[in-house]
Amino acid sequence: MILRSHTVWLVPIAALLSVAASAVRVVAQTTYSFDAVYDTEVILTPITPEVSQASVSGFNPSAPYGLTNFTSINYSRFDSQTGVFTFVPNAANFGLEDLAVGVDRFFGSGDDQLFGSSNATAAINNANGTLDGSGTITITGGSGRFAGATGVLNFSETEPLDQDPTAPLRGRAILSGFFQVPQKIPEPGTNLALVGVGVTGAGFLLRQRRLRSAKES
């Protein structure tokens, strides 16, 4: 009987402490949709006869969340047999070592930024006289209210080919997707308060149990 009675009052105490601990551990995520069109400029800088560094900059004064600018650096290789350009962030995929891994960055005038990397393919559209490409940007981080962001943005991009060959290639990129940002973990003071609630409740139950036992004896 003594063992059973101890078990009875330990259950609510454990439940209170469990609730307090769970409240500390829970971390929510906020999901942001992202749909934007950027005017772009592309510069291809040859590294080898087949591989170039691709530097892209984009601007949209009305972009969501104030992310009016983006930059992208990766590496492209042209396959003369298929007529396809392949873009990757790591030049090691093309057998070139010791080159910096490319980064994509969305930013504006404030502290909010998104970071990631992109993969894409593009081909010359002879009928339209354009270079048409598509790919994905994998979001791997951020700053400001987007710290810890993760997600995927899909994009398509088109550049007319009847431009000055000595100038950056101008075009337009259409992006669409989602990214998630973890909610901030409660401050240490909040954590202690939550645990304190559990301990206080446990103490109350313990006192009640002792008073009841004294009356019964």
Coarse morphology: elongated
Radius of gyration: 28 Å
CATH architecture label name: Beta Barrel
**Strand-residue fraction?**
over 45%
The overall average pLDDT, rounded, is 84
Organism: Brasilonema sennae CENA114
Protein name: Ice-binding protein C-terminal domain-containing protein
Signal peptide: 1-23
Domain Ice-binding protein C-terminal: 185-210
Describe this structure in words.
It holds the Pfam family PEP-CTERM. Keywords: Signal. Residues 185-210 form the Ice-binding protein C-terminal domain. This is Ice-binding protein C-terminal domain-containing protein. By secondary structure, the protein is α+β, with helices and mostly antiparallel strands. It has a single domain, classed as SO1590-like (AOC barrel-like, Beta Barrel), CATH 2.40.350. The chain contains two helices and nine strands. Strands 1, 2, 3, 4, 5, 6, 7, 8 and 9 form a nine-stranded antiparallel sheet that branches. Helix 1 packs antiparallel against helix 2 (188-216).
Summarize the structure.
The chain has 217 residues and is of the alpha+beta class. Helix content is 24%, strand content 46%. It is elongated and about 95 Å long.
What characteristics describe this protein?
217 residues; alpha+beta; AOC barrel-like; nine-stranded antiparallel β-sheet; 2 helices; 24% helix; disordered N terminus
Helices and strands in order:
Layout (H helix, E strand, L loop, with lengths): L1 H24 L3 E18 L4 E9 L9 E11 L4 E5 L15 E4 L5 E13 L4 E14 L6 E11 L8 E14 L5 H29 L1
Helix pairs in contact: 1-2
